[in-house]
Fold this protein.
Amino acid sequence: MPSLEGKFWETENPDDSFSVTQRLIFKREKIDVKIVKKESDDTIKFELFQRLNTLGSKLSDQEVRNCLLVMLNREFYTWLKALSEDEHFLNTISLADRLIDEKYNMELALRFLIISSIDPNEVRSLNDFSEFVTEKMILIAEDEHYDKVENERIFRETFKLLDETLSEQAFKKYVVDKDKFEGKFLLASYEALAIGIGKNIDAWLAQPHDEAQQTNLRDKIKGIWQNPQFLARYGSGVNVTSRVPVIVPLGAQVFVP
């Protein structure tokens, strides 16, 4: 508070100290204190954190998840963060600095891991997809048998291929009449392309890594922007619960080399 700079509680000079009224206000004010011990239940810690998050500057969904993840499994948090900072991944999603600050890149990395591992029809009846992502994240983080090595390999190889093929244009809209990719990052494109290619990554890696392969992949990406099923569900007005069950299987089918 700039107006209190240089002020003292009480001095001989009234101009340098709090007034009697100000001192009374401070003395009568109550401070609410919640004591959370290290050994306290993680659920209690997280519920308290969520309540506190309703005040001040509200955190993004992923920032809240990160808090929970650090409590549940700090090693998994560190691993997910490293994936989300992969150079090829960041090049392809090409997000604004604000979204990076809000950890949207971590949410996208988490979505890739989750949606790649489920039956897309699971999301059809959901009321809250964000809550679904959080619940799946908890299950993965607490799963001692979750194969981080294999999932990391698929993740990094997928975005390396996409980066080398289209780089920052990968998840933008392809405009047929102009024969060019333009606009901003599109989540529907990410779900169809990244997950579809990820499911077929070993088949892509088995091919010669040359210009012919890149041309083939580029043509398939352009082609999905002319697919009626995809076009019917990529817009911002389409709910994720009706989008994912259609475009994820479609992507897995389209992106077979």
